[in-house]
Design goal:
With about 140 residues, the protein is an alpha+beta fold. The chain is built from four helices and eight strands.
């Protein structure tokens, strides 16, 4: 597989687009389990949020090793970026990230989407921040 990005600036531009990522964690038997997530790439870390009581948080607590895979959209040239490394969980920052990303991923003029965000914001302690600090970044097509 070849690198679809001529330089880091192209990769950063790809990651700046609103794309879903797949968070891949390990089950208690070691089998990978992938779930779609919103994400924010800071240039050094991948930030995500999740409900504290979700199975993915249980898996991360048991084994923090994970991958986050970001792919092209339909109709775009094939490309992907994968981040591999440990995930840190934080009690703070989850709802702030969710609020920031909602504006990126949703049309907040939509009453239904705005209502969901409002329900999240009314229970901020239900969310945590996930930070993946990549030990390896892979790209391909």
């Amino acid at each position: 597989m070849t690198n679809p990005f001529r330089n880091n600036a192209q990769r950063e531009e790809f990651l700046a687009e609103p794309r879903l990522a797949i968070l891949i964690t390990n089950s208690d038997r070691g089998a990978p389990i992938g779930v779609p997530v919103w994400f924010e790439w800071t240039g050094t870390n991948v930030h995500m949020f999740a409900g504290r009581e979700t199975p993915k948080i249980d898996r991360i607590k048991r084994d923090p090793t994970a991958s986050v895979l970001v792919t092209n959209a339909i109709g775009e040239p094939e490309a992907w970026v994968a981040f591999d490394g440990p995930i840190e969980l934080s009690d703070n920052g989850g709802i702030e990230l969710a609020t920031r990303l909602a504006d990126r991923y949703w049309d907040l003029d939509n009453d239904q989407q705005r209502a969901v965000l409002s329900s999240w914001q009314s229970a901020p302690d239900a969310f945590c921040l996930l930070t993946l600090k990549p030990v390896r970044v892979r790209t391909g097509q």
